């Protein structure tokens, strides 16, 4: 396939960026989207031009690094798929593809298509963990957990932290991400010890990072590549209200 790419180029977060047009030829429909970008960068290097910066790591749909806005959709046109698992067969010969970074104040652009998602790391540091020293690794069956609860916790734990929920939300809200991390631990007995301080601290850090408020549009869940449910936001709201009702921190 021969394609026209309209790629966002930006030197750093302090400079103004813009769309630059590129042509790529002889793209195999079996290539992944990132492999197609590799071809573009090889062409640019041969011409002595600077390659396009973009984030990637595992290229297996696990790490969440491949955060691209493709033709106006987070991770591209295929539902339930990360950018690295999106294949060029989803496009046609002669197509024009617009490629942009995530758009959110809390995700500043590092360069070109690469954004700084360290705000998510700071939210996790604020409370997305179990801090109790539990000693050695316990036997898997030592703490009985009903299968329904275990399944719900596992589904929340599948969040890969890619940021598609933020990028697709008109308010740039991180509620789906935060709720998945809160639900994952709040549902399990191991996470009950500090569930109140956890949700208070994580929500406070989310607000501090500059993410917007949730208005229940649902675009976050619609564009999530791993299918995190909106039910987790309801769990987060329940946990937060319960924590505030009995908290010593009235701020």
Automatic annotation (TrEMBL):
PANTHER family: SUCCINATE DEHYDROGENASE, SUCCINATE DEHYDROGENASE IRON-SULFUR PROTEIN. Its cofactor is [2Fe-2S] cluster; [3Fe-4S] cluster. Residues 150-180 form the 4Fe-4S ferredoxin-type domain. GO terms for molecular function: 2 iron, 2 sulfur cluster binding; electron transfer activity. It comes from Hymenobacter metallilatus. The lineage of its organism: Bacteria, Pseudomonadati, Bacteroidota, Cytophagia, Cytophagales. It comes from the Bacteria. Coiled coil: none annotated. Pfam families: Fer2_3 (PF13085), Fer4_8 (PF13183). This is Succinate dehydrogenase/fumarate reductase iron-sulfur subunit. InterPro entries: 2Fe-2S_ferredoxin-like_sf, 2Fe2S_fd_BS, 4Fe4S_Fe-S-bd, Beta-grasp_dom_sf, Helical_ferredxn, SDH/FRD_Iron-Sulfur, Succ_DH/fum_Rdtase_N.
């Amino acid at each position: 396939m021969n394609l026209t790419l309209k790629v966002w180029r930006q030197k750093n977060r302090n400079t103004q960026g813009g769309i630059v047009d590129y042509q790529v030829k002889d793209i195999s429909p079996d290539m992944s989207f990132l492999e197609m970008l590799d071809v573009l960068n090889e062409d640019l290097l041969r011409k002595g031009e600077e390659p396009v910066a973009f984030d990637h790591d595992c290229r297996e749909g696990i790490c969440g690094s491949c955060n691209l806005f493709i033709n106006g959709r987070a991770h591209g046109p295929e539902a339930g798929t990360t950018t690295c698992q999106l294949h060029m067969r989803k496009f046609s010969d002669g197509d024009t593809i617009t490629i942009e970074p995530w758009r959110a104040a809390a995700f500043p652009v590092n360069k070109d298509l690469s954004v700084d998602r360290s705000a998510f790391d700071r939210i996790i540091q604020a409370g997305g963990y179990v801090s109790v020293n539990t000693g050695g690794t316990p036997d898997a069956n030592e703490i009985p957990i009903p299968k329904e609860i275990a399944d719900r916790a596992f589904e929340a734990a599948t969040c890969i932290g890619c940021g598609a929920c933020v990028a697709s939300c008109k308010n740039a809200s991180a509620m789906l991400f935060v709720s998945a991390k809160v639900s994952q631990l709040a549902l399990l007995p191991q996470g009950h010890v500090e569930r109140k301080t956890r949700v208070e601290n994580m929500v406070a850090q989310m607000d501090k990072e500059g993410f917007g408020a949730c208005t229940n549009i649902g675009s976050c869940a619609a564009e999530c590549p791993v299918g995190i449910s909106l039910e987790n936001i309801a769990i987060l709201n329940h946990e937060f209200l319960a924590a505030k009702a009995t908290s010593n921190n009235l701020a």
